[in-house]
């Protein structure tokens, strides 16, 4: 998840630590305040600094809007046509737990508290896919626009998306952790971006993938795509889709990257159902979510839609490819 600039933390408050799984955005290693991981009663959540004031206001407003729809849905049990479009997002946006304030290095910092999408995963594989050919928002300065236009240009122009960072546990290498950051992402083009996804998805040496893994990602990605095909309220800039799964559930370590539906019960030689494969695609980062202006009224966000359509298309191509078997 991305967040705004802040100081590198040297004196974190009690009950929180740095989140080790952050794959993109501003991190402590870059001299910024990155994502934090609470303990105790708040375990299972993450704390994201709101960064610049207006960015925080916009992001909190997006989550609060979704929570208001959730509240009305629980109370009434039915939705208006407009609300039904937003209730679809309950499955593909992290659960929101408010915006607490903590004192970090002597200053008060506001955070957004969200569900930890990696909670309970043994080998969490995480990819941040930034959505949109255009990533700068309407308030960006000319300098900011030029800087943004030069980033990840090859992928953004062709697919309307880019990959700022990802990590995966390589099943064929005994679960070795591999991390790639923005330098890797900037080298990706329309000719080799598929290779990044194949790495992340733990393809076998001959390029095979788990059909179960792809189908479960597509179930979430299609919800996001269908929402983007209809929603006309917002324009999302520099927003991401976070892909998460547990590589420990992919076959036998060092043997195969394909999903197994059963596992051997060593005590009696019987086969038992394996744990369901943990897979999630979630919309994140709404610091640059702007209401559609008058000239855009009634139209969809083509910039965001292109990226989501491309992401769905890539996964559908993998699923259709010969050799993708369970």
UniProtKB/TrEMBL annotation:
* InterPro entries per UniProt: IPK (IPR005522), IPK_sf (IPR038286)
One annotated GO molecular function is:
inositol tetrakisphosphate kinase activity
Q: Name one GO cellular component term.
A: nucleus
Cite the entry's keywords alphabetically.
ATP-binding, Kinase, Nucleotide-binding, Transferase
Enzyme class, UniProt record, top EC level: transferase
Instruction: Name the reaction it catalyses.
Output: 1D-myo-inositol 1,4,5-trisphosphate + 2 ATP = 1D-myo-inositol 1,3,4,5,6-pentakisphosphate + 2 ADP + 2 H(+); 1D-myo-inositol 1,3,4,6-tetrakisphosphate + ATP = 1D-myo-inositol 1,3,4,5,6-pentakisphosphate + ADP + H(+)
Q: Look up the domain of life of the source.
A: Eukaryota
Q: Which GO terms describe its biological process?
A: inositol phosphate biosynthetic process
Q: EC number(s) of the enzyme?
A: 2.7.-.-
The similarity comment for this entry is: Belongs to the inositol phosphokinase (IPK) family.
User: Known PANTHER family for this protein?
Assistant: INOSITOL POLYPHOSPHATE KINASE, INOSITOL POLYPHOSPHATE MULTIKINASE
Q: What is this protein called?
A: Kinase
């Amino acid at each position: 998840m991305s967040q705004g600039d802040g100081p590198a933390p040297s004196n974190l408050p009690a009950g929180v630590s740095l989140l080790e799984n952050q794959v993109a955005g501003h991190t402590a290693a870059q001299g910024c305040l990155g994502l934090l991981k609470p303990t105790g009663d708040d375990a299972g959540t993450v704390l994201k600094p709101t960064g610049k004031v207006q960015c925080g206001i916009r992001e909190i407003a997006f989550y609060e809007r979704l929570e208001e729809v959730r509240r009305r849905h629980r109370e009434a049990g039915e939705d208006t046509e407009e609300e039904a479009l937003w209730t679809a997002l309950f499955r593909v946006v992290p659960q929101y737990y408010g915006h607490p304030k903590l004192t970090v290095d002597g200053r008060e910092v506001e955070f957004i508290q969200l569900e930890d999408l990696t909670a309970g995963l043994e080998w969490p594989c995480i990819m941040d896919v930034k959505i949109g050919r255009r990533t700068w928002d309407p308030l960006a300065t000319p300098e900011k626009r030029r800087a943004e236009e030069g980033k990840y240009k090859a992928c953004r122009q062709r697919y309307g998306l880019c990959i700022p960072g990802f990590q995966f546990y390589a099943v064929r290498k005994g679960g070795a952790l591999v991390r790639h950051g923005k330098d890797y992402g900037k080298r990706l083009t329309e000719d080799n971006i598929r290779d990044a996804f194949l790495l992340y998805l733990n393809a076998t040496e001959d390029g095979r993938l788990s059909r179960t893994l792809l189908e479960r990602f597509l179930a979430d990605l299609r919800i996001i795509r269908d929402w983007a095909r209809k929603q006309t309220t917002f324009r999302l800039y520099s927003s991401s889709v976070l892909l998460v799964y547990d590589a420990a559930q992919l076959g036998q370590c060092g043997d195969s990257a394909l999903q197994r539906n059963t596992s051997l019960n060593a005590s009696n030689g019987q086969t038992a159902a394996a744990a369901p494969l943990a897979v999630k695609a979630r919309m994140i980062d709404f610091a640059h979510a702007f209401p559609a202006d008058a000239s855009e009224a009634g139209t969809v966000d083509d910039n965001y839609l292109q990226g989501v359509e491309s992401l769905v298309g890539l996964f559908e191509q993998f699923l259709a490819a010969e050799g993708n078997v369970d």
